[in-house]
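DATA SHEET
Item: assembly model
Revision: 1
Owner: S.N.
Input lines:
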Amino acid sequence: MTPGSYVVEVIVENKPLARDPEGETIHQNLILKGGYKQVTSVRAGKLLRMNVEANSPEDARAIVRKLSDDLRIYNPAAHTIQVRTVG
Amino acid sequence: MVKVAVIQYPGSNCDLDALEILRGVVKARTDLVWHKDLEHDDYDAYVLPGGFSYGDYLRAGAIAATSPSLRIVKEAAEGGKPVLGICNGFQILVEAGLLPGAVLRNSTLRFVCTWTRLRVETTRTPFTSKAERGQVLEIPVAHNEGRYYLDKEQIPELEKNQQIVFRYVNEEKEPTEDANPNGSVDNIAGISNQKGNVMGLMPHPERASLQELSPDNQTDGRLIFDSMMRTLNG
């Protein structure tokens, strides 16, 4: 338990079955055209970085996870999220 | 006399168009109501207009969906009153959970502004009661985030409940890929809640309700407002 300020990131992505035209365009028209054939797919998403006062990194993530659900930071019909602490 | 509210959010920009059609064309007593001033369910029907509420930040409609006005709209919806969301209004209703699914960025990644053909899939809603099933309405769209999304396996349920109200179709009335302006799943242009009294659609009926604004003088959008008024007037 280390109370302090934590940096928590939320990554919002379209669900795997929901098409992601932005990722497809970046992949086909930039990365493959640029010669990086090793890259087989790209998904674009949205990143929110938050500073959170909490007792621990786990608490900080739990707060962000809860607010993401409560305030619909993502739409569960179409998106998935990952919540991670980075500092 | 029935009373309709057009709810105005910061960034709404089709509010006055909707107001003009409701007051001037279908002759409904209509108030333009700032979202923070909507404190009681005092109206017989609610229209959430198009625009870019809160700059479309986070996701189109996501922030407006947390406005206290949505509590009133939910209450009205539960009471069976007609609620119509047009474009950004549709996105708000989806984000507020009054309608299922999500509205995502167009598959073309471009803002699309064009006339579309909509096939009426059901006449059970207060917004299509004056139409015939299979009838085609010409109504324009103008949006960047209009791709209706719902997991494929949930579509049959929507279909069974007659919640799919409009589909984009071609001249032969077929829901083809070419007729779909934004990549919506199953060419869906408008849906309703299970009861049918809450409907959202991406096209703008208020922009197709005056002859002067239509390329061929048709006023197909009026059918949606006329249907609503017929329902309200019993």
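QC remark: Chain B has one domain: 3-232.
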